[in-house]
Structure formats: structure tokens, C-alpha cells
């Protein structure tokens, strides 16, 4: 039996997505007005303690989100070489090199939203739970603008999250309070921190429920939709706006699931995406999978903004646990056990690993994981070589051919 590539069957767009522009646009407008409203701005890594910053009244800006926008808009290709010319290797994080290139050239997708570019920070706050690149990235701007750069140094490749680890990271987060209070010009109100953590936890629970609707057969949403839908979970967690958006999205997806409205009409196979998205090729990949009647139903990437451990009753320790518990921060054994659970829950037929050249931290095919999981799960895998933002590292023809052959293999199986 062979699998034929046909024209992509017609898909019905999600209604809730129409609200996305207003939600994300509103977020960026707020950032843009920060200074005139007398609000301070903090830059934060995507899995950093954003709740603490919000509780201290900062506008919170996430440069990785900007990096993804540079990739999705394909502006990254012109900008990365500018950062390379300033001594940032083409081999390191292409979010970093795209973003610094954007700064050097004075070009940003935010200009289409009426901002002159990313808002200047009053403080930069990183967490090395995901990689060292974020620290180097933030320190560049700290030197450039002479602003303070604070951070949490989290251990990585964690097995059991035992008490000494959580205690150490919790103390590090707590130690940020005095310098942040000084920059914010206000004292931390513990009740406000609990309130923000409560909102963040609700956001995470809703986002998790949204992703879990894809356990239905057929799935009502794809991974490619998820990379767009996750915007509010990344930049607006800890706010009511994010909750309102995800409540509406969840209701629509549950309705779709109940009526068996598929994200990919004629869904035949279900794939797990491991690793970073190829931001500049989301649409092409989404179309190819739809043509192959194959749905990418789940991913490690979209799940990275589920923080089950957040607990307003124990703010610092629960933030420490939540931000150490993310997939990228865990040991190979923990990661494999996680993927095994995902494969069972989402009824996965095959796993696609994206080996992103400039992000070894989020490429999990390099130390034999696919082979070990093949033996345990008895489902096939495919590795595609590419990158999150640097499309010079992505061979589209090769990826297309390999994906087609992979799905044909599933059909034969
Ligand atoms: S995890 Fe990867 S993509 Fe994200 S900031 Fe670090 S190196 Fe860049």
C-alpha cells in the first residue's frame, strides 16, 4: 500500500483564533505604553519566574517570543549574519542571533504593531533551566544598555526532583526579591504574588486541557495550530486575559471533539513532534501533513508551558519545582518516561525528532533516545535536520521526501 500526496483537504479554522490578534496585540500595546504609564519593564526567559515580576508590577517581555516571531516572519535569515559578524557563532541559538541581529538592524515584527521595537528593559531576568544561551543573550543587552541582569542558575539533566535541589532554586528565586524591589520601587506584596500564581496555575491548567483535547480521535487541533495558540500561555500567564482566551478555545475544541470535527480531515496517522518547531516552515509542514492525512497531535514543545507544580500556598518552592520540572531540564530517563506516557495518551503511531542545529538543548535524538524508545514502544521514528530559525540549516526537499517516506512506511505497517 502506498500513500499518495493529494491536495490538502479543506480545514475549518478555529473561531477563537480570531480573538488572538486582539489578545496578543493588546499585550504588545501595553508593553509599548509602559514607560509613558510609569511602568517598569522586565525581560524574562520563557520559563523564568515571570510571576514574581508581575507581582512587583513590571510589564514582562519575553525575548524568545520575539525570536519565534523573527523565525515565523522569516526575517531571521537577514538578521542572523549581523549577529555572527559581531562574534556570535552561527552554531549557537538562532533565537539569540536573530534577536541580536534585529536589534543591530533596528528591524522587528513589532514595528507592524506600532511599536518601535522591543521595549527597553529596566532589568533582565534569566533562568538557565533551559540552556546557557539565555544568560549570554541577556548579558549582551545588560552590557549594551547598562541595565542589571539577574538570574537563577538551575541544575540540569535532573532525575528525581529532590528536596536539596528544590530548596536551592527556591532560595535563589527568593534572593531576587530585594534587588527587584529596588528596581521596581515597591515592596513585594505576598498576597499579590499568591494571586498571580493562582492565575498562572489556572492558565496552565486550561492550556493543558486544550492540548489534551487532541487525545481524541480525530484530533481537533494540530501541533502547528498549537504553536500559534500557545502565545498567551507564554507571554500572558498570570493574567485574566489569558484565562478568558483559553476558556473560549477549550470550549470550541471540546465541541469539535464531541462532533468529531477533525483538524486533519481523513486523519489516518498520529505523530508526536519532539523538539523545536521550524518556525519559518510551519505552514508548509502543516500542509504536507494534512495532504498525507496525518495529524501531528502532540509535542514536547507545546507542553513546555504546563506547570502543574505552581501552588499559591507555597510560592517560592512551587515556582522552583515548576521551573525545574520542565522536560528540557530533566534526565534522559525522565524524558523517555514522559514520551512513553505521551505516546500512550495521544495514541501515537510514530515520533518525529527535529534535530535543530543551533539548539542542542532541545534536540533529543543525539544520544540514542530514538533507538531506546523504538525498542520500548515498537513504533517508528524519523529524524529531520533543520533549525528553529536559521533556514540555511534546513533542507526542505530532504525533509519533505523523508516525511512522505515515513508516512508511507506507517501505511505499510
Ligand atoms: S533552549 Fe534552545 S532555542 Fe531556547 S533559548 Fe536555549 S538554545 Fe535557544
Question: Widest sheet: strand order?
Answer: 2-1-3-4
Q: State the share of residues found in helices, binned by percent.
A: 40-55%
Sequence of secondary-structure elements: HEHEHHHEHEHHHHHHEHEHHHEHEH
Number of helices: 18
User: Tell me, what is the CATH class?
Assistant: Alpha Beta
Count every beta strand, where a strand is a DSSP E run of 2 or more residues: 8
Detail the poorly predicted runs.
none
CATH topology: Rossmann fold
Bound molecule types: iron/sulfur cluster
Average of pLDDT: 96
The 3D shape can be described as globular
The largest sheet, given as strand count, sense and whether it forms a barrel, is:
4 strands, parallel
Rg calc: 21 Å
Name the features.
single chain; 413 residues; alpha/beta; Rossmann fold; 4-stranded parallel sheet; 18 helices; 8 strands; 49% helix; globular; binds iron/sulfur cluster
Amino acid at each position: 500500500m502506498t500513500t499518495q500526496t493529494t491536495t490538502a483537504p479543506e480545514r475549518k479554522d478555529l473561531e477563537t483564533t480570531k480573538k488572538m490578534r486582539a489578545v496578543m496585540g493588546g499585550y504588545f500595546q501595553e508593553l509599548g505604553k509602559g514607560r509613558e504609564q510609569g511602568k517598569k519593564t522586565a525581560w524574562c526567559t520563557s520559563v523564568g519566574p515571570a510571576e514574581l515580576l508581575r507581582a512587583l508590577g513590571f510589564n514582562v517581555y519575553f525575548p524568545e517570543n520575539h525570536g519565534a516571531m523573527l523565525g515565523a516572519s522569516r526575517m531571521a535569515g537577514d538578521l542572523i549574519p549581523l549577529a555572527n559578524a559581531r562574534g556570535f557563532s552561527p552554531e549557537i541559538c538562532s533565537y539569540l542571533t536573530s534577536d541580536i541581529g534585529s536589534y543591530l538592524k533596528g528591524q522587528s515584527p513589532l514595528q507592524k504593531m506600532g511599536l518601535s521595537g522591543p521595549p527597553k528593559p529596566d532589568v533582565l531576568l534569566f533562568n538557565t533551566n533551559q540552556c546557557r544561551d539565555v544568560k549570554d543573550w541577556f548579558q549582551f543587552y545588560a552590557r549594551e544598555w547598562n541595565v542589571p541582569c539577574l538570574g537563577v542558575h538551575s541544575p540540569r539533566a535532573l532525575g528525581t526532583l529532590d528536596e536539596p535541589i528544590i530548596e536551592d532554586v527556591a532560595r535563589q528565586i527568593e534572593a531576587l526579591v530585594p534587588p527587584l524591589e529596588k528596581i521596581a520601587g515597591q515592596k513585594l506584596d505576598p498576597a499579590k504574588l499568591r494571586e498571580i500564581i493562582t492565575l498562572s496555575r489556572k492558565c496552565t491548567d486550561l492550556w493543558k486541557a486544550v492540548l489534551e483535547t487532541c487525545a481524541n480521535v480525530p484530533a481537533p487541533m494540530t501541533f502547528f495550530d498549537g504553536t500559534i495558540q500557545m502565545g498567551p500561555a507564554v507571554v500572558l500567564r498570570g493574567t485574566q486575559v489569558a484565562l478568558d482566551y483559553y476558556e473560549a478555545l477549550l470550549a470550541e475544541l471540546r465541541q469539535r471533539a464531541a462532533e468529531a470535527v477533525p483538524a486533519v480531515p481523513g486523519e489516518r496517522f498520529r505523530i508526536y513532534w519532539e523538539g523545536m518547531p521550524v518556525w519559518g516552515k510551519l505552514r508548509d509542514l502543516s500542509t504536507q501533513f494534512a495532504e498525507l492525512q496525518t495529524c501531528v497531535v502532540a509535542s514536547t514543545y507545546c507542553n513546555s508551558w504546563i506547570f502543574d507544580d505552581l501552588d499559591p500556598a507555597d510560592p517560592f518552592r512551587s515556582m522552583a519545582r515548576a521551573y525545574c520540572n520542565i522536560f528540557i531540564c530533566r534526565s534522559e530517563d525522565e524524558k523517555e518516561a514522559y514520551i512513553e506516557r505521551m505516546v500512550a495518551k495521544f495514541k501515537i503511531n510514530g515520533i518525529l525528532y527535529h534535530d535543530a542545529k543551533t539548539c542542542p538543548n532541545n534536540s533529543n535524538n543525539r544520544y540514542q533516545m530514538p533507538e531506546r524508545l523504538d525498542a520500548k514502544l515498537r513504533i517508528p521514528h524519523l529524524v529531520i535536520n533543520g533549525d528553529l530559525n536559521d533556514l540555511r540549516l534546513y533542507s526542505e526537499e530532504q525533509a519533505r521526501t523523508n516525511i512522505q517516506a515515513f508516512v508511507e512506511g506507517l501505511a505499510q505497517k
